[in-house]
Amino acid sequence: MSLERPSAVAGTEGADQAAPDSVVAAHALDRRTRAAARTHLLRAGGLLALLAALLFCAVLSIAVGAKDIPLPVVWNAVWNPDGGYDTSVVWELRMPRTVLGVFVGAALGLAGALMQGLTRNPIAEPGILGVNSGAAAAVVVAIFVFGLTSPTAYVWFGFVGAAVAAVLVYALGSRGRTGATPVRLALAGTAVAAVLQGLVYGITVIDEFVFDQIRFWQVGSLVGRDLELFLRIWPFLAVGIVLALALGPALNTIALGEDLAAALGAHINRTRTLVALAIVLLCGGATAAAGPIWFVGLIVPHVARSMVGPDQRWMLPYSALLAAILLTGADIVGRVLPATGELEVGIITALVGAPVFIMLVRRRRMAQL
Amino acid sequence: MTLTPARARGADGTADTAGAARRARPAPVLRLAGGRVSVLVRPRTAAVYTGLLAATAAVFAVSLAVGDYSIALDRVLWALVGYGERLDLFFVRDVRLPRALAAVLVGAALGIAGAVFQSLSRNPLGSPDIIGFTGGASAGAVATILVLGGTTLQVSLGAIVGGVATAGLVYLLALKRGVQGYRLVLVGIGINAMLLAVRDYLMTRAELTEAMTAQVWMIGSINGTAWGQALTIAASCAVLMPVVLLLGRRLRLMEMGDSTAQALGVPVGRTQVMALLAASALTGAAIAVAGPIAFIALAAPQLVRRLARTSGTALMGAALMGALLLAAADLVAQRALAPTQLPVGVVTAVIGGGYLVWVLYREWRTGNA
């Protein structure tokens, strides 16, 4: 009887050979439960720490900027707006971009994590659903046809363009007997994005005015976005974030592989459609608001995965918080670092984030999908 | 299922099993020299390759004949061998022939390089971007244009230096007890993001006209290609393509997984490095002549696989498909908005993307998905 005992259990429980199997099993189960509880506690603690870090970044983002305003004055301006110059700097410039940075960052991180979970492809990013190119094409057309000149003016074009492109990609990739397989989705996305990119290239080559606008929009920046823009776009982002966080368990099941997931009774196509919907809301909203910042959605999920492993229930909130920290942090650095003017947040995220990411890739064995 | 190429790994397997069942009929084998040399002849593959070749030849001939000064086909043929009016000779031999040759060869180089990268990375989204080659070349060329104000030759040189340096850097950073495919891809993404940021930064800080020049280069164009450039790409193809084709058999074995290939006697590490070098050099030559033309490297291997229904990488087919795609695209770029000539990159994106959309749509209609 003791011969049949699994060796791992036999090794640890070697002392009491006489103990009945049920007792040994109960011991092992108990130990595993305790280990799991410890892991959960650790991860929850990490989540709290990240939340604190994000809060710190947000406060810093309101307190620091090109104009040197002393901290007490900032504090006063936040709580008792008196209509003075400092108040308007805090409320009209720093507040909107801080809030926007947190929301856009979280949205991009979640969208990237969802996309990689959905396609099980490590280089999948939300742009694969055609979101970035859809938004870019719509914005280019808006500038070309209507002569619009500010991000607030073309936010709806960006959002609608992103949504239409994503729906098109999903429809093209998900029909047929097999449904939205990762490879088909990726190919459909590449195809639609290429056509739209061709449109953008064509118009920008013909019309210099459009090119002059789009080259600034396509960097991805939080500068010049007012509260008006945020008020227009936040409901989409909020719904997307809630939906994404709720999809964790379903994505975990899909990660087992389609056949196994289907055998376990998962609604694969429903989950995929909901994930795609969340990505459209998150990424369309973020891109419409800040322009295409593609690096964050691609990289942050890998970092989150290296911290908590492939469990989507933890991976998703970690991705959201890490991305929000990265974006607000990068925005602050872009404001403080250059002697004159500012660096766009899209440039900073790449220049600061990429070396850190490469270091992580080299140091650890990255959790594979 | 074990014999299905590893490309299908991490993807949905059902489509491939259905395809395998359809392909189960044994293919005729051509035996030469008393059976010591044998070639598997698949009628469909042979037919597709012949068709591609014929179509490329037709497009090539038409592109020599049409233009603002159009020449009848029989006069084109006479002009090629040196007879005819002086104007015919000038247009056919000095203006159109180098450009048409460059289009075909650059297309072939990009197609075959794309097939190698997709095979090595076992990812249908794999392309020279993965090892940072395209990103490095773009950043190098844009920096040469915007910072140094370089000539055409210097821009090509800048692109090559940028591309090679970046690819080397990515490889070195991914090197740690051997190069692991997953790590290579992730490091490539990181470096690529940094280069993109540098490029966008330069674009936003430059004068509008200079930025426009850089943009046209980045889209990819073979307008006004001279004999010198056509010979550059011809020489590169003559040397490098046979190398890649000879590696083809080993690459196919490696798609079954590195350890399986090793067990079958394939020197995996050496093959990896050689294929990577040859494909990078081909891409570099193509970029130096035409700029980073989008989509050919990505789409050509996928399209030919679907047309010929091969299970693994079809190197020769990818080259033929790339040649046809680029030659046709360049013809359209010349004539679509004549006398305005578009950069060919605009058209490759639209044609290639549109065609891929059509293929996916047809698969969905016929239930082959």
TrEMBL record, chain A:
Cross-referenced Gene3D superfamilies: ABC transporter involved in vitamin B12 uptake, BtuC (1.10.3470.10)
Residues that span the membrane, as ranges: 41-66, 98-115, 127-148, 154-173, 185-206, 233-254, 274-295, 315-333, 345-362
Record membrane topology: Multi-pass membrane protein
Any one Gene Ontology molecular-function term assigned to this protein's record: transmembrane transporter activity
Keywords: Cell membrane, Membrane, Transmembrane, Transmembrane helix, Transport
InterPro entries in the cross-refs: ABC_BtuC-like (IPR037294), ABC_transptr_permease_BtuC (IPR000522)
CDD domains: TM_ABC_iron-siderophores_like
GO biological process: siderophore-iron import into cell
One cellular-component annotation, GO: plasma membrane
Localization of this protein: Cell membrane
Family the entry assigns: Belongs to the binding-protein-dependent transport system permease family. FecCD subfamily.
Name of protein: Iron chelate uptake ABC transporter family permease subunit
TrEMBL record, chain B:
Top-rank taxon: Bacteria
Keywords linked to the UniProt accession: Cell membrane, Membrane, Transmembrane, Transmembrane helix, Transport
Topology of the protein relative to the lipid bilayer: Multi-pass membrane protein
Compositional bias segments (type: Low complexity): 1-21
Segments traversing the membrane: 46-66, 100-118, 130-149, 155-174, 181-198, 226-247, 273-300, 312-332, 344-361
Location(s) in or outside the cell: Cell membrane
SUPFAM superfamilies in UniProt: ABC transporter involved in vitamin B12 uptake, BtuC
Start and end residues of each stretch annotated as Disordered: 1-22
Keyword match Electron transport: no
Coiled-coil parts of chain: none
A Pfam family the protein falls into: FecCD
One GO biological process term: siderophore-iron import into cell
The family this protein is said to belong to: Belongs to the binding-protein-dependent transport system permease family. FecCD subfamily.
Protein name: Iron chelate uptake ABC transporter family permease subunit
